[in-house]
Model the fold of this input.
Amino acid sequence: MTRRLVLLGLVLSLVAGACGDDDARPIFSSTTSVPPTTSSATEAVVDTTSTIVGAASTSTTEQEFTSITDIETITQLTIFDLEEWWGSELPAVFGVAYDPVSEFGPYFISQGDIPFCGGPLKREEFETNAFYCSIDDTVQWDAETLMAPLFQEFGDFTVALVLAHEWGHAVQARFGFDHVNQSTIVSELQADCLAGAWTRRIEAGESNLLRLEPGDLEEAMAGFLLIGDELGSAPGGPNAHGGSFDRLNAFFDGLNAGTAECATYEDSPPDIVFIPLRVGEDPAQGGDLPLADTAPFLIDALEVFWTIVYPEVFGTAWIPVSSTVPYRPSSGAFPSCAGTTFDRAFYEGSAFYCAADDYVAWDDEVLFPDLYVQIGDFAIGLILANEWGRAAQSRAGLDIHTPAAQLQVDCLAGVWAAALIPDDNPTGILLSAGDLEEGIAGFLTLSAAPGDEGAVSAFDRFESFKDGFFSGTDACGF
Done:
């Protein structure tokens, strides 16, 4: 192969579509360290199994919220909250009254349940699925093979997110979404946006029933890894819902800007990032570079990128990073930084930039091989892009140690990723189908645990990456 990097990974499951206007599909998920005087990509595995939404007690003047521990409670409270909120939000934003959903509830395949939508559905239409049926104005979901596994593996917010998406379609039926002239993907992304707008309400503490807890928004990220379309699926198809990256972006629109932003989707559809499968690529097999070639090719691409971008941003020429230092912790030989060698625990599972000696180092025994196997080569790309971003900050005389500095290098990583899409880009490598999904999984794996004091969350890091990807270096705070 040529020096074109094919980053293909994370084959995402599809769940068959249901009837009516749309369907919802199941939702899924997926480590570096800093010298005290340098910087790094410290990672702690995200706890996606923790409870995320708290239920309000009925009592006193000040409400107290307790963690939800069963699927029935999160289901009931979510539906109550969605119905209450849309009762006021739909008239306020769309100017039409909200009529409650006529009927909603689970079905149990093991008990022989066959859901209806204008008639009985085929098993492939309802198994492991949730859907809004516009014919009967109902929301229905598979309790056993969709909701229960989501709750057990990822927590209660994924259950809430499925329901919020389907209520988004019920809202579209009430304000009159133009299904004739709009593509399916716009409808689906708008429903994701509306789910984000409802989450905004919870995050702002405006619900009397629910509160977010640390880890909830990371659960949302993990969920969107499961509901994206199959890699390489054309966005104009009749059943297109959008890739995981597109769907998470739509959720962010609602979360950050509210329902009014979602209402613009028909007139101004959101950006859709479509990376087709290239000749010979099989989404079921993956197409990553050999592990031994991954870091060298990515490093060459980063040097080309910064040779072009650094002068544009800072007005002076880029000076290449002096050296790279892959190391094996089992050898006991570790690179020093400014004459200091740290405890072995610092080096294990870590990658870092040493500003004093201008080198990038990484654990080449555990960290990179594990990320390569578990996620794909673009997870390695995220780490290296972060360290080259820190080198750029250091050359510009910027702080590389603060949470804001971390978000800035994530933003720069997004700029770099977007530069790898055009076939004629000068870096010599290309993004391929699945890379951006690998990026989402990478942020979940390579970020501090939710709630850690002073830590930068995976959700905030991905948002910065997304801003750089779509808006360039202007979004990165220089």
